[in-house]
Design a protein that fits this description.
Domain Tetrapyrrole methylase: 1-201
Organism: Campylobacter insulaenigrae
GO biological process, one term: methylation
Protein name: 16S rRNA (Cytidine(1402)-2'-O)-methyltransferase
Radius of gyration: 22 Å
GO molecular function: methyltransferase activity
Shape: flat
Order of helices and strands: EHEHEHEHEHEHEHEEHEHHHH
Length: 272
């Protein structure tokens, strides 16, 4: 059996009884960082007077996950195995998704335990979500792709959740403010920890506050949607197909909204 165990994102008391039970039961651990895993195990054993004693702790992260899975047989998972990322829910902006896919493909029994998640915590704290939302994780670090990511989140029809590093948080809010200085933004850092900080205002005001804050720590940002603009400017495939344009131009426009390549769209237009 393969268990995906979420770990506390700050406050050690957020670990569940179920997680402690599974961690004590398993002797083989896969983890994002073996040093972080060993440190967390020691903290849990001391805080909750439990006996988590893995016989083997192996690294499984974004740089070795494919190589690791190619090197083992599915019989590897006949014993109880735990997977833990450094903090939070495995597979959400953390390694783990490929391991889930591997388990499904090879009919390996697995269970994902419930637990801490920074994105949902920030979303609820923001008061910006009535029903739907969009999680974008970490944006590109720099360059044209980062600019494209920010422009995209500003057009999203629902609140957008973004993770950001302390070195880029001011740049992110500056870019948002340049596009729409009055857009409502919620920021939170070091969620559940002793020095948790959170603030909600328009982008211009948030930027002003950030410049006077200690930026160290992990940041989560929730950006309000601009619903009116979205409804006025939305295009669908049918709208593009009705335009009197060359097929190559249509195929490029279609690729912007249906995630298919221009070539694939062009071939489909030729057959229609």
């Amino acid at each position: 059996m393969l268990y995906f165990v979420p770990t506390p994102i700050g406050n050690l008391n957020d670990i569940s009884f179920h997680s402690l039970e599974i961690l004590q039961k398993c002797k083989l651990f896969l983890c994002e960082d073996t040093r972080v895993c060993k440190s967390l195990i020691n903290l849990l054993n001391n805080r909750f007077n439990v006996a988590i004693k893995p016989l083997k702790i192996l690294a499984f992260h974004t740089h070795n996950e494919k190589t690791f899975l190619n090197s083992i047989d599915k019989d590897f998972f006949e014993e109880d195995v735990v997977y833990m990322s450094d903090a939070g829910m495995p597979g959400i902006s953390d390694p783990g998704q490929i391991l889930i896919e591997y388990a499904i493909k090879n009919n390996i029994k697995y269970e994902v335990l419930s637990g801490s998640n920074a994105a949902l915590l920030a979303l609820v704290s923001s008061g910006l979500c009535l029903k739907e939302f969009i999680f974008m994780g970490f944006l590109a670090n720099k360059g044209a792709q980062r600019k494209k990511d920010i422009e995209k989140l500003m057009l999203n029809p629902y609140p957008s959740i973004v993770y950001e590093a302390p070195t880029r948080i001011i740049n992110l809010i500056e870019e948002i403010s340049n596009i729409d200085s009055l857009r409502e933004v919620f920021i939170i850092k070091e969620a559940t920890k002793k020095f948790e900080s959170k603030f909600k205002a328009n982008a211009c005001k948030v930027l002003e506050n950030l410049k006077n804050m200690d930026l160290r720590g992990e940041w989560c940002v929730v950006i309000a949607p601009k619903i009116d603009q979205f409804h006025q400017n939305i295009l669908c495939e049918e709208d593009i197909l009705e335009l009197d344009l060359p097929l190559k131009v249509k195929s490029k426009l279609l690729s912007k909204i249906n995630a298919k390549s221009p070539k694939e769209n062009y071939q489909k237009l030729l057959l229609s």
